[in-house]
UniProtKB/TrEMBL annotation, chain A:
Residues 14-245, 262-507 form the ABC transporter domain. Pfam families: ABC_tran (PF00005). It comes from Chelatococcus reniformis. The lineage of its organism: Bacteria, Pseudomonadati, Pseudomonadota, Alphaproteobacteria, Hyphomicrobiales. Keywords: ATP-binding, Nucleotide-binding. Transmembrane segments: none annotated. Belongs to the ABC transporter superfamily. This is ABC transporter. Gene3D superfamilies: P-loop containing nucleotide triphosphate hydrolases. InterPro entries: AAA+_ATPase, ABC_carbohydrate_import_ATPase, ABC_transporter-like_ATP-bd, ABC_transporter-like_CS, P-loop_NTPase. It comes from the Bacteria. GO terms for molecular function: ATP binding; ATP hydrolysis activity. The keyword ATP-binding applies. SMART domains: AAA.
UniProtKB/TrEMBL annotation, chain B:
It is a multi-pass membrane protein. The keyword Transmembrane applies. It is found in: Cell membrane. GO terms for cellular component: plasma membrane. This is ABC transporter permease. PANTHER family: ABC TRANSPORTER PERMEASE PROTEIN, SUGAR ABC TRANSPORTER INTEGRAL MEMBRANE PROTEIN-RELATED. Keywords: Cell membrane, Membrane, Transmembrane, Transmembrane helix. It comes from Chelatococcus reniformis. The chain crosses the membrane at residues 32-53, 60-83, 89-107, 139-155, 185-209, 215-231, 238-258, 264-280. The keyword Transmembrane helix applies. It holds the Pfam family BPD_transp_2. InterPro entries: ABC_transp_permease (IPR001851). GO terms for molecular function: transmembrane transporter activity.
Amino acid sequence: MHPSLTRPNVPDRLELRSIRKAYPAVVANDDVSLRVAPGEIHAVVGENGAGKSTLMKIIYGIVQPDSGEMLWNGREVVIRSPAQAQRLGIGMVFQHFALFDTLTAAENIALALPTTPSLNALSDQISSVAASYGLPVDPARPIYTLSVGERQRVEIVRALLRKPGLLILDEPTSVLTPQAVEKLFEALRRIAADGCSILYISHKLNEIQSLCDSATVLRGGRVTGTCVPRQETPASIARMMIGEDLPRYREATQAAAGRTRLELANVSLPTRDPFGTALADVSLGIRSGEILGIAGVSGNGQAELMSVLSGEQRLVEHGAVRLDGEAIGHLGPAERRALGLRSVPEDRLDQGAVPAMSLADNVLVTVNRGRATRCGLIRFSWIEAYAKTCIETFGVRCGGPAAHAGSLSGGNLQKYIIGREILQEPGVLIVSQPTWGVDVGAAVVIRQALLDLRDRGAAILVISEELDELFDIADRIAVMAGGRLSEGVERACTSRDRVGLAMTGGHGAPSLHVKEADDAVAL
Amino acid sequence: MSSLVAQLIVATLVAGTPLVYAALGELVVERAGVVNMGVEGMMVVGAVAAFAVAMATGSLGLGVLVAMAAGMLLSLLFAVLAVSFNANQVAVGLALTIFGTSLGSYLGKSYVGMALVVPPSGLGAAAADIPILGQLHPLVWLSWVLFTATWFFLYRTKYGLALRAVGESPASAHAIGYPVIRIRYLATLFGGALAGIAGAYVSLVYTALWTEGLIAGRGWIAVALVVFATWRPGRCLAGAYLFGGATMAQLFAQSAGVGLPSELMSALPYLATIVVLALISRDETMMRLNVPASLGKPFSI
């Protein structure tokens, strides 16, 4: 039950009335109202681009609304800066943490406090907050040495030390293992029980159902519904969120996996970058007609693995990477593409496309041999036709081949970039975080395209942080943790919990096999 | 013998001091995430302003103060363009150097060849008997005080922490409530003031006369020093005195009649400083951990 309904005399902690914020190209928030009672955990649900982040930035004073009212504990307020929001008692935990990498946890926390206690006193405070909410933090360690889960705890502790009346969490579980999510939820429930309200931003319906007292659903910048999540089904919330039923995958016509196409044998790669992860004895094999999924919290060697596979990082030992048995470890990305090994990087704006160039010109980024050119000159008609085919085949919503890549939404650009590679019918495709920051509709299109490519006999490697995604499309799943890669296990033989445990990594991590592990326990 | 060693030490400290000031100022600026390449220009203007004021009033102290003000004025111009209006920092800095150098030549035209004769200050006279220290100008002592204070500020105070945080991630600093633009302005002004003092020191103390091209690229060395010192004050200080020592060594060598063209000899300190610091800064980890992550990147809300 909505707590404020049972105690009508207590003013809401926060109330928004008809908030509107328009940007030149888009109305981010339109007539958005919501109420959060003291101690309530309130979800703000919506797809990417639904206006959740803008709304939170308005509450936190980073962005000013065009119109609308904000009430804090029943009194109207205008919040002009994050500093003012903090003074009122609003704390925020950012999706891409607002931390300083080279400073220690204690220094990061000290920066956010209005007073300056001595570092020793502060360390004691940190420990006591950490203990009471189950959020262990080592004050002396620099941020860059921490895992993402630890960084998040630093942010939460930092916000809690200011004794906030409202804590905003923006997609806090996108980088956590299932077990870490459970721990986070316990901490959040304790925080709420102490009277602090929580605004929980997410698009993960099962989490909202297990954690939140009430929810406001946004679509296209407008409120499309409010509900008590526990009384709904994921499907009914999804309908409010995307306006239609969740799309489904087509039935797979899967043939048995064939011969091994791409092989990696005992690759170790030291790193001189203190922010990087060294690869330790990584081996893998991908067979034609299968998708191998690599799970893991990012920063555990995925970027390094990707660079070894794509050819950005060449290896001294030629035979460490083999394509159809041929040693290619010394070849660069262009040479590997010519052999039929294509890759889609994680960062679509930085590595996957040139944002300031047209979609047609962006064809040339990876499709620049054969018919794309004649005597070294670009065949503009050909690349334009290619771009057009890609746009039509994958349903890219854009202004045509002449539209700048940077003008597309994340989901549409991602469809375009993956489509550009798939149209080349690669024998081996490597994709990193294919649906990161992509709306549900586009994610289904992308995953379906990968499944179709697999059914046509390609060998595909998908690196992803989203366990649900891997369990949807991968035939085998391996886990990357601390620069090591586990063995790939058939999807049916493992479980989300098993994979989650392995993601926390280290030596002696449990086997991914549900059955084997249970046998081991029985012994 | 010992007097020769003492002489060498004094000469090194004297020659290195302008770089201590200029590099220390630029270090603070860059720690806030701003690259001001106009150090050379600010030093030239500081030098000529100090010289003109000292000639007119006979007061070195007043000359130094005016030089500080002149440096701050130029850095304010830089901050308005590069911090507020987000113009490209490198381009604005280069323009500032060209502007400052030409302005200095123009203003200093009537002073060319003139020498400054000022009696030693009371403080200097009182300390004259102390070995080494007594032979140094109070501005050299002040550089040590400033160095210590700056180090303490950067690494022991919350404001220094905030300044480093702004250089590391202005977006995060803004998100937790820090006035990023104001902090960058203050840092830039501090850099301007120190470049001004550095210039004043050259024209008032080091040469005590005005010629065209007096600063002779010391501002550029200061900018390079900060980078090669991996943004750490101690290394900046060492680099500045390395330059000073090399300058003196080549002067001694020239007067001893080493058979190399004097132009080449004059280039040696610059070369030696760059080579040594480049060798030190090869450690990528060290570089990566100390470089202000937002260096040179504009920030707007």
